[in-house]
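WARN no homologs supplied; continuing
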Amino acid sequence: MGTHVSADETGVTLAKLLGCRWVRLLDACSVTHWNIVEPERGKWAWQQGNWIDEAIDTYRRAGLKVLGLLFRTPTWASSGETVNHPPKDLQAWRTYVRVVAEHFKGRIDAYEVWNEPYGLGLFTGKEDLYLQMVRTAYEELRKVDPQALIVAPCTYWTLSDVVAWTEKLLQKGLVSFVDVFSFHGYEGYRPDAFERVRHWSTTDGQRRPIWNTEQGVVSESFYRFLADADDDPYTRWIATQSFPARQAAAALVKAFVSSLAAGCEKFFQYWAVPEDTMLPRLKSMSLLEFDNVLRPKAAAWAIAGWLLRDCQPDGFERSGNLWQVHFRKGDQRITVAWSEEGTATILLPDGTQALTMMGNPALASKGRLQIGYEPVYILLPASKGGILMLGEKSQ
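OK structure emitted
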């Protein structure tokens, strides 16, 4: 499990309590971004002060591993007017990667090349240029810090334009320069959603880790008596994506479980920072209210991580509207089950323990358990047979 938290005691304490072992450096902490570390050519931020090193050291002292981002072009190196334009000179990009890798050697465990480079305003370059940037990063990191992993292409699992962009890169040999295949799983809540990603990651015939480096669920707030103060395009868009707080908890657990079912080794939740600078934007992806109170989705995700930690995926199945995602841990089998629509009644074998998504005992009657929208965990010895669906009831 990983997340996006600030580089302070509040952030790292929250990450550890949630069960996270990794942090990703996007907007909660941007100390590897090019425009931050080299705002002027040849002038490196750590030469002016120690705040960048303090940020990384805060994560490391807490025992968190770090996924850095090679991202955002400074004005002096940009081919356009913003940080989202690619560099006009790949030699400058090479220098940036090399110097960052040298400075953080042994303190940053992996580097992802750009954030969402397939367009949508965050990268204006074409496939060939992105491929060159990945290859350059691969070459420099292999020379300077060969233990650091190269993570790319930070793609998206659906949308026809993004699929076409990704497949062009794969045809040009992208995976030859990648240790970990990364994607963003937004809106993927079903165990079969990410099969395409699994295929993409092995286009050269080699198996490599898959990381879902960003996925969040927009949640409404318990503070229903307050209205969103901001009236900007992002806030209006967020309002169209939001789930009620309890449904958001269920959706985040499904996203996490579906990623694990697809073979993802890492899942980075976005994000765990109070959006107090936008006070009050109450519909948000944050695990926190603007006053640092945990939302239900935070607790539900932490429980999922605790129950499924060190488990191995063992396939999934669908019977009508009922999804069952299976995991194994030693001599124990854990099945996560939910119904896409209505309810399903299942028969539990003897010796089975069933838990709600919040970790409480799920109430069964004579071995029969009703499964609805919210995921349920079913724990049983691996030697036992599977659960049996007895029937469904539509809403």
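The chain has a mean pLDDT of 93.
OK
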